[in-house]
Amino acid sequence: MKYLQLADSVIMEGKRKIPRLKGYSSALQLIGTGRSAYVFKVQDEQIALKVFFPHKTHLAREEAAIYRKLPSGSYYPTLHEGGKNYIVIDYLDGYTLFHYLENGIYIQEEKIYAINEALEMARKAGLNPSDIHLKNIMITSNKQVKLIDVARFRQTEKDRQWDDLQKVYFKGYVKPYFPKRIPRVILNCIAAVYKTGLRFIG
Length: 202
Hints:
Elements: H1 2-8, E1 11-13, E2 20-23, E3 28-33, E4 37-42, E5 47-52, H2 58-69, E6 79-82, E7 86-90, E8 94-96, H3 97-102, H4 109-124, E9 137-140, E10 145-147, H5 161-173, H6 184-195
Antiparallel strand pairs: 1-2, 3-4, 4-5, 5-7, 6-7, 8-9, 9-10
Pfam families: Pkinase (PF00069)
GO molecular function: ATP binding; protein kinase activity
Protein name: Protein kinase domain-containing protein
């Protein structure tokens, strides 16, 4: 009931792709805005509340169902509760791979293998990991890999984005001459290309 009340406190308005956030409980701290939801940290708890936009509420049940199929306490946050327009999951303290590249923090090879292990876990659970990009992969403060957005893990089409990121990592990034700091504008341009269905690498 507590998390339901907190979710109900989140007021959005407008019919834009990302509706305007008009207000929310003082017990919530806004920590992120995605393509389908606002994400909050619950005060004094290591809990994140994801409240979906009015035109994306169907994804709440979809994402909750996917989390229930994934092994808890592994490479994915644990689902604690789900409602008609929200889910409650672990709050993770750390940085995304996007942040690592933007700030020139070296990404170790072992993290790439851990991401692949996480994706294989999802496949063994009968899912099809999709929408795997730099902002959906996090390295926590204790150096664990976590995948943080699973809403599209039931898509039927093949998602090549992670395959391409791996190729760039092993063929370029690990080389001494490859820049380790990449400007935000370039990272966002690459992401925009993939959203259109095109690829940089064939």
